[in-house]
Amino acid sequence: MAKILVTMPDEFLNKVDGLADKESCSRSELIREALRNYMRRISKQQLQNASKNAEILDEILS
Questions:
Q1: Distance from C-alpha of 53 to C-alpha of 16, rounded to nearest angstrom
Q2: Could you give the CA distance from residue 23 to residue 55 in angstroms, rounded to a whole number?
Q3: pTM, two decimal places
């Protein structure tokens, strides 16, 4: 597994650590899961946008 360096304000990192403690997971696990959720959400939005664009194109061409 690769390691990365991420810079964030101390206040934000304290919130991340607090949430990781609350969820009983590591900081790394919490950040990985947050990124997975973000990527899923973006993928869904892209599919919805593609569907809307197809509908618009269909209306224009009809």
A1: 37
A2: 42
A3: 0.73
Distance CA 53, CA 45 (A): 12
The two structure tokens encoding residue 41: 């959400």
Taking a C-beta distance cutoff of 8 angstroms, is the pair 31, 15 a contact? no
pLDDT (tens, 9 = 90+) of the chain, 62 residues, equals 899 999 999 999 999 999 999 999 999 999 999 999 999 999 888 888 888 888 888 889 88
Taking the C-alpha atoms of residue 36 and residue 18, their distance in angstroms, rounded to an integer, is 20
For residues 41 and 26, the answer to whether their CB atoms sit within 8 Å is no
Cα torsion through 15, 12, 14, 36, rounded to 10: 60
